[in-house]
Amino acid sequence: MKQYKVAVVGAMGLVGGEMIKTLVRRNFPVSELRPLDIAANVGKAVVFKGEAVPVQEACKANFKDIDIAIFSAGADASIELAPLAVEMGAIVVDNSSAWRMDDECPLVVPEVNPHDLDWHKGIIANPNCSTIQMLVALKPLHDEGRIKRIVVSTYQAAAGAGMKGIDSLYEESTAYLKDKEVRASRGFAYQLGFNAIPHIDVFQEGGYTKEENKMILETMKIMGSRDIKVTATCVRIPVAVGHSEAVNIETEKKITRERAQELLRNAPSVILKDDPESNTYPMPLFCSEVDETMVGRVREDSSVDNGLNLWIVSNNVRKGAALNAVQIAETLVERKLV
Question: Could you give the 3-state DSSP secondary structure of residue 222?
Fold first, then answer.
């Protein structure tokens, strides 16, 4: 099997570290791993296949001979460095929001629209974590009944804000339980511990947040249809890892609960956990070591003719970020695009 030289940009971050673990876990054919990060982290090391690999600076020269560069370094770094990596001959898979709505860049969930990789021009965007898990679950239902409208409310974990989000949650919760002063969160508008914040990213026109608009616009791009109506409310909750979503869909063709369960049971990268009699349903508690998207609470919406309700849970650090990016790289290899 052909081997590939792979760079991970942002290698010292939460998602970058998970990307490296995912390359190992999925046995991606890596001949050389080149961890890249800011200058302050040069000289530190990551562990890859049991060996310490020194971190190098993320700069144009260090993309030399790289086949695939997987980015998780933020939008500003991606805007600056991704085109330089492409100039040096690499294909970029970018986890930030920088390129998602660029018409020249495919926005890909491999279980949903792998064909869009065929027209890439060097940069491929990894969607928002909440969008990824929702569409993995909705794709088989869309193929069956054509989705007309999606109403989604998210319950997003602290890890969506990176390691600082998890640290904030732990610090606040510890202080609260010890009856100490709970200081304002780093990166959150309010205390996250023992709270729910209906505010992720900045507010935009019409009162929607950027996170909510991401879900709306990304869904239409990935599904290849502007006819799908989407509305979203995104909430940060005091869970370390694992995003949850309450999703209501309306379809052109009726899908019964039983048929929806059958479709989901057989869908790629989906685990159906849906048995109310035994209290079986997805929860973030169960997703720490799970790559698949879990779906439960499937039921027909009695308020419309062709409606379904679902509860969708996924590990946002894995499928919502690192895993999806590595799967894009795998799909590039499978389609002989690299």
Answer: helix
Which of 105, 142, 243, 287 is the catalytic position? 243
List the domain range (segments joined by +) for residue 243: 131-316
SS3 of 15-45: HHHHHHHHHHHCCCCEEEEEEEECHHHCCCE
Q: b/e map of 52-63 (b: 16 or more CB within 10 Å)?
A: ebebbebeeebb
Active site residue 234: no
Distances (CA, A) of 296 to 247, 260, 272, 273, 304: 11, 11, 6, 5, 20
CATH code (residue 172): 3.30.360.10
The token pair that represents 37 in the structure block: 């990060």
287 tagged catalytic? no
Annotated catalytic residue: which of 105, 120, 129, 287?
Answer: 129
Question: What is the tens place of the pLDDT at every residue in 70-103?
Answer: 999 999 999 999 999 999 999 999 999 999 999 9
What would the pLDDT profile of 241-251 be if each residue is shown by its tens digit?
A: 999 999 999 99
Do 247 and 149 meet the contact criterion of CB atoms below 8 Å apart? no
One-letter amino acid identity for 215? M
Distant-in-sequence, close-in-space partners of 80: CB < 8 Å, separation ≥ 6: none
pLDDT tens-place string over residues 173-221: 999 999 999 887 777 989 999 999 999 999 999 999 999 999 999 999 9
How high is the pLDDT of residue 13? 96
The pLDDT, as a whole number, for residue 184 is 72
Number of domain units in the chain: 2
